[in-house]
Amino acid sequence: MIYLKLFLTFLKIGAFTFGGGYAMLPLMQEAVLANEWMSEEAMLNFIAVAESTPGPVAINMATYIGIETGGVFGACCATLGVVLPSFVIILIVAGFYEKYKNSFIVKGCMKGLRPVVVGLIASAVISLGLGVFFPSGITLQAFDYSFFCSITIFALVVFLAFKKVSPILLILISAGLGIATGYAEKLII
Alpha-carbon distance 26 to 19, whole Å? Predict the structure, then answer.
């Protein structure tokens, strides 16, 4: 039963989310929390891991959630579910796009989808940001050492990203700074 539920849940996410993995994150988060497949903190931690490992974030997330809830076969079901809609849609679109790309309906559809994708990505950024910077909610106690370290790392990475530093180097810098601040926090406390 869990295998079918994983497949259908991720099939729905894959079929009704446009814009790639980041746009899927809010739907994944909602589905995972509603089904109690993992805690919100565990999901936030794995999003960070999925971001720093090779491959699309949506596939990494589906595979991980599947393996956590249903083992290897669960991972296969969730991954197939999230990938199958895109695969089928791209096959269909590729066959017709060249012929109809100048159609006002197709152009209108593409214009309508762009803001939705940006909105879904913004929703994921806000949701993840609140979970990362304010894991216990926005209170005075949230503005502690960890908060200021996280904000500093975030600001540094954004600055370096605008300076066109390699994303691989940014991931390594972030991991190194995260480890260093974790050790420093243990020494302070």
Answer: 12
**Other C-beta atoms within 10 Å of 16: how many?**
10
**pTM (whole model) above 0.90:** no
Q: Are 83 and 14 in contact (CB under 8 A)?
A: yes
Low-confidence ranges of the chain (pLDDT < 50): none
d(CA 150, CA 96): 47
Say what angle helices 2-15 and 57-100 make with each other, to 10 degrees.
50
Amino acid 9: pLDDT: 92
pLDDT at 189: 63
Q: Can you read off the two tokens belonging to residue 78?
A: 């969730």
Phi first, then psi, for residue 137 (nearest 5°) are 95, 165
Per-residue pLDDT of 151-185, as tens digits, reads: 888 888 889 889 988 888 888 888 888 888 888 87
* Residue 20 phi, psi (nearest 5): 95, -170
**Dihedral sign for Cα atoms in the order 46, 50, 56, 62:** negative
* Residue 44 to residue 32: CA distance in whole angstroms: 11
Of the candidates 24, 30, 93, which has an alpha carbon nearest to the alpha carbon of residue 61? 24
